[in-house]
Amino acid sequence: MKHSNHLFYLENYAKVLLDVGLGLRSNDGILLSFDEVGLPLARIVVREAYRRGAKDVITIFADDTMNLDRYNFGMDKIFDDMPKFKVDYREQAFLDNYHSLYITSPNPELLKDVDGDRVARWQKCVSQATEPIQHYQMDNKVKWCVASVPGPAWAKKVFPELEKSQALEALWNLIFEATRMKEEDPVEAWKRHDVLLKEKEKYLDDNNFDKILFKGPGTDLEITLVKGHKWIGGSSKLERGDVFMANIPTEEVFTMPHAKRVEGIVRATKPLSLQGQLVENFSIEFKEGKVVAFEAEKGREVLEKLFAMDEGAMRLGEVALVPDDSPISRRGVLFFNTLFDENASCHLALGNAYGENLRQAQELSDEEKKKLGMNTSMVHVDFMVGGPELEVLGIKEDGSQVVLLQDGNWV
Ligand code: ZN
Ligand code: ZN
What we know:
The protein is an alpha+beta fold and 411 residues long. It has helices at 3-21, 39-51, 64-73, 84-95, 116-138, 152-158, 164-178, 186-207, 300-307, 338-341, 366-372, and strands spanning 29-35, 56-62, 98-104, 144-148, 211-216, 219-225, 232-233, 236-237, 243-244, 253-255, 257-267, 272-274, 277-287, 290-298, 316-321, 347-351, 380-384, 391-395, 401-406, 409-410. Strands 5, 6, 11, 12, 13, 14, 18, 19 and 20 form a nine-stranded antiparallel beta sheet that branches.
């Protein structure tokens, strides 16, 4: 890859993140999170944001080494203490028309050698502390977008056979393709893609399925959907009309399962990188919506800690359909990164559900939403269940069946 090409695609990336991801408007502010790997992209994002009339960009820097050092050398008590002012700060920003852009560069196994208890405690602490402001993003009260850039450790995990710099170049290349940065006009390409996802959304909404069935090797799962559910694909909308896309890339159409009506067993088809640790070859069994048994060849204790977070962590909050021939999936690469792997595979999420998946979300109280079957939790963890052998059926209230995906792809 020539350097000039790389820079050209990186500039496209910044434009897509602002124009499609955040749907940036004049006078919007941005809370921009990134790390050392994301710095070159973050710089372009800042420049382009001001060119587009952003009122302010607040930069929030993170770093793997500093993060590791905190886990390894920090006092034990700091993993249970998140100062309230940090949460208040973010809330005040949201109320003042700031929106979140996360440029992440996860190392899938960053935390594999640190004390797992500290990791779990800190995750719980952050989730609890930020719970009062989670609804800003979960219910689309502010715009937000998550995107990723590759770092050396992640690239090595994806391409272990390549030498470090080649691995990095190969992963950049994949990410530029998966995010449509090599298209003639990437912003237009994303708008066209959004139209296609909205067609799928409408088809599924028009059918108003009562249940979704997943069938495949090791998987036989019946998911009852919440009454009044709404499928979402592609862009989301703020009440005031701004259109944004919470994930770049996104290939999924997803909706809300009933928290208490999921029956059967499901087998994950890809490893899950969770809190810097890997869980591999696992399956989960549900009864009346709740996890009653689970197995994992590797990382079982990571799942165990997840389920111990709260009651909702043991129930589903999302069911998502992604064809096996999505442009990301076609690459046949395992990304060890949820943002990419979940857009190459049908997936389910344990934990919190998205308010936008309810038709009448605006008019319902939290209590009413819960009554309908919406799951609530401090966590939201997607895991992949799709693949070439998966069949997905939709069942209507009158019992009639429609095959939605066969051999992993849309019928
Ligand atoms: Zn999803
Ligand atoms: Zn999800």
